[in-house]
Amino acid sequence: MCEQENGPDPRSGDAVAERKRDLRERLLTARRHTPQEVLDARAASLGAHVLAIPEVAFAGTVAAYVSMGTEPPTDAVLAALHARGAHVLLPVLLGDNDLDWAPYEGPDSLRDAGRGLREPATTPLGVDAVASADVVLVPGLAVSADGVRMGRGGGSYDRALARVGENALRVLLLHPDEIDQDVPAAPHDQRVDVVVSAEGVVRFTA
Ligand SMILES: Nc1ncnc2c1ncn2[C@@H]1O[C@H](COP(=O)(O)OP(=O)(O)OP(=O)(O)O)[C@@H](O)[C@H]1O
Ligand SMILES: [Mg+2]
């Protein structure tokens, strides 16, 4: 049989999964090759852009995450939200890659959860707690020109975002060169409303 007959059908879910794998590999390699001083230089402007979004500035409850490795850092954003009295929820990764949510009680309240993850040590409130958020800050690796998000491949945020209220603002934090990518989309892939990088804020229209 020729390769064309054996290759993935470009219309099938397998082809989407394969293209996502390739794109993830390319973007993760780019992150690994970004000098630490460049990552550090982006941190302050990213945080300032996030906190200046009006919905973030006025949110009563923000579901967020603790960044790891070469992800755009969230520590300063979490601390600032907590300091101004916002209710901040953080994810707790479950065995099936779904996300539970627990309250953030300040920088000293996180524990090492292994594999570079830091999680809240507080009591989890359940997978549906994310529905109480006015704003959801999510990690990822890429976003398309119309707001389709791609993450690391666990499907965690596709599940979590499906539980978020329809008036909540979904905000993705990325590095500048990860925006406007040709993201392969499957029906389960969730969109975001806004992407923020060190270079600024982009809002997607519905
Ligand atoms: N609602 C869901 N329930 C169960 N599995 C799901 C759900 N949504 C997505 N998945 C599964 O998760 C797997 C990974 O999905 P996908 O490639 O879209 O990950 P991702 O969006 O990059 O990951 P993440 O959301 O963790 O950042 C797929 O096998 C997909 O079927
Ligand atoms: Mg997805």
From TrEMBL:
GO MF annotation: an example: 5-formyltetrahydrofolate cyclo-ligase activity
Any matching Pfam family: 5-FTHF_cyc-lig
Reaction it catalyzes: (6S)-5-formyl-5,6,7,8-tetrahydrofolate + ATP = (6R)-5,10-methenyltetrahydrofolate + ADP + phosphate
Domain of life: Bacteria
Needed cofactors: Mg(2+)
Keywords, comma-separated and alphabetical: ATP-binding, Ligase, Magnesium, Metal-binding, Nucleotide-binding
SUPFAM superfamilies from the UniProt entry: NagB/RpiA/CoA transferase-like
EC number(s) on file: 6.3.3.2
UniProt KW Ligase keyword: yes
Keyword match Ligase: yes
Top EC class, one word: ligase
Signal peptide location: none
Record family assignment: Belongs to the 5-formyltetrahydrofolate cyclo-ligase family.
UniProt cross-references to NCBIfam families, sorted A to Z: MTHFS_bact
Protein name: 5-formyltetrahydrofolate cyclo-ligase
Naturally occurring in which organism (per UniProt): Nocardioides yefusunii
Source species taxonomy: Bacteria, Bacillati, Actinomycetota, Actinomycetes, Propionibacteriales
